[in-house]
Amino acid sequence: MWHFFNPVQIDAGPGAFDGLPELVGNRRAILIAFPEARELGLCDRVQALLGEQLLAIETDIQPNPDVSWLSPLYERLWRDHPDAECIIALGGGSVIDCAKAMLTSTPSGTFAELLDCLSGKASLSQPPGRVRSLIAVPTTAGTGSEVTPWATIWDKGQGRKYSLHLPWTWPQAAIIDPALMCSLPAAATLASGLDALSHALESLWNINRNPVSASLAVSAARQIIRHLPLLMQDLSSLELRAELAVAAAMAGLAFSNTKTALAHSLSYDLTLEQGLPHGIACSFSLPHVMQMALGQDAQLDQLLLSIFEVQDSAQAVAALSQFLDQLGVSTDPAAYGVSPEQWQQRIAQALQGPRGRNFIGAHAMDAVQV
């Protein structure tokens, strides 16, 4: 038996952003956006669309949301704007993750109380207080956060991460307008596109894979492999931006039901330790992980071979490695400061984590060979 569930309404295509007022309705809203949104005129555009319904604009959002600045932002927004019913997240994965952390009020009004629930010190089977709805407007093609309930919250001071995942953190709607992505610089375009590829592949070599998620993931991976190199050569192409935006959304829909797996588990320490961009941290290991996945499940093998249009496993691994190499992404862990011995240790450790246990080969591996 299998099931597939995703409650997020998706409005997509050039010009979709102009439909924001219809989604907001008569609710009062807060805009959370990336820092450059003001100079690009996007904050003024939202203000013009919503008028007095827009109560506040927050653009001081940093990559990889950390408790050090999430906590005061959370407490201020709930204190100063208790009547806001909706949050609009305009930006990449960090902005949307930040917005998800702002959705749920706590009885004490403190962010620490929410963290207690995320760390297992308290239960959150139902909202402890009010819940705001979320409209996610991605300006990158990769995160998938606009169609999932998950957010990653970092505590760099303590060297740990939290995974925010609550029944009420699904976005109400996602507006996917490729015109909002044309100003994205090359490095962020590459990292976000590879993040989407990782989502697609990770949802395939996954114990939670189902026919719908697999179909979405295969289509997404094919589109990314076909169009990302072209987009890197022509960042102004609205057509290519649209292709990547659709692929990223499909990958997001796929892993919204399966979660991620081993490559993501391996990535978190590298982001914490070195500040390696998430899209690079979770994608450079994909050929290594695919090599481990091939041979575990005949249906999975066929899906992976079909993505790369090759006849055997070695060709598939080589094709993925070549794809990353052509984009300037090394697949050698040593390039990221990890020795061969450390890499094996990290794989063994990652296989025991919650994401690593989703990997199709995790339960069959007592010893790991890459």
TrEMBL record:
GO biological process, one term: antibiotic biosynthetic process
Origin: domain of life: Bacteria
MF annotations from Gene Ontology: alcohol dehydrogenase (NAD+) activity; metal ion binding
PROSITE patterns on file: ADH_IRON_1 (PS00913)
Start and end residues of each Alcohol dehydrogenase iron-type/glycerol dehydrogenase GldA domain: 8-178
Name recorded for this polypeptide: Alcohol dehydrogenase EutG
All copies of domain Fe-containing alcohol dehydrogenase-like C-terminal, residue ranges: 189-352
Organism in which the protein naturally occurs: Alcaligenes pakistanensis
Keyword tags: Oxidoreductase
InterPro entries the UniProt entry points to: ADH_Fe/GldA, ADH_Fe_C, ADH_Fe_CS, ADH_Fe_PsrA-like, Alcohol_dehydrogenase_Fe, PhpC
Pfam families the record matches: ADH_Fe_C (PF25137), Fe-ADH (PF00465)
Keyword Oxidoreductase: yes
